[in-house]
Structures are given as C-alpha cells and as structure tokens.
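From the methods appendix. Each design record in this collection lists the tokenized structure first, followed by the designed amino acid sequence. Records were kept in a plain field format so they could be parsed without special tools. The example shown here is representative of the layout used throughout.

RECORD:
FOLD TOKENS (146 positions):
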C-alpha cells in the first residue's frame, strides 16, 4: 500500500511538471498574438502608411521594451531603483511614485521620437490609442470570463 502511494505521488509530481512546461509556449503564443493585434490596431488607428510603419515600429518596440522593464521593476520585490530615481521611501518600502515619474519621462522622450516619424498630433494620439487597446483587451477578457 505504501509503495502504491509513493508511485502515485511520483506520477502526480511528474505529470504536474509536464503540464507546467507545456504551459509556457502556449502563454508566449497568446502574448505574441496579443502583440500582433496591438500592432494592427495601432497601425489602423494612427492610419500609418507602409513607410511610416517601417520607421515607427522599431522605435515603438524600443519604447515597449523600456515600459515592460519599468513595469516589471515596479511590481517586483527587488529594491533596485529605476534610472536616476530612488525606489525606496523612508520606511523601506518601494516608492511607486518614482516609477510612475520614470514612466512619464519615458513617454515624453518617446513622444518626441514618434513625432519625428509620424508628426506631433499622431504621436500624442498614440498614447490614447494604446490605452484604448488595453481597455478593449480588458473588456474582452471580462467577456470571456463570464
């Protein structure tokens, strides 16, 4: 009986490990599909020409990478401060406002870069379009969970 429990426990452990390793590619495929939808949405909403898109999206990819880094730093328990800002307040807790300030700086920097490619009015509009996409994504997630 004890051997059977041991065997059952071992098989369960191996099965759960196999399921965890299979979950990663599926999640990365979902993430990739969402990113592709986001790029299509931005292209459509900003009414980008093919040449504008070819110049815009390498800059956008840099922006997106920087924002992901900041957001992961903000949510992680690591105490590393974003460039030039103190991540800890006086009580030893993370100072979320310093991350928000850094995000604002990054957005201002990239708004200038975007405006060189697509003009200032569409560069300003980009951030609203990006927010609209997030809201659409959130609504779709809520709809699927019902």
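DESIGN:
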């Amino acid at each position: 009986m004890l051997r059977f429990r041991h065997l059952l426990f071992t098989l369960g452990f191996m099965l759960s490990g196999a399921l965890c390793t299979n979950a990663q590619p599926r999640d990365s495929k979902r993430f990739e599909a969402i990113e592709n939808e986001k790029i299509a949405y931005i292209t459509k909403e900003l009414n980008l020409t093919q040449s504008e898109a070819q110049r815009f999206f390498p800059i956008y990819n840099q922006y997106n990478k920087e924002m992901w880094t900041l957001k992961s730093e903000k949510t992680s328990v690591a105490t590393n401060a974003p460039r030039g800002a103190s991540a800890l307040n006086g009580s030893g807790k993370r100072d979320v406002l310093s991350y928000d300030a850094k995000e604002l700086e990054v957005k201002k920097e990239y708004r200038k870069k975007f405006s060189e490619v697509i003009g200032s009015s569409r560069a300003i509009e980009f951030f609203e379009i990006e927010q609209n996409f997030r809201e659409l994504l959130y609504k779709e997630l809520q709809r699927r969970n019902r």
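APPENDIX NOTE: The chain is about 80% helix and 0% strand.
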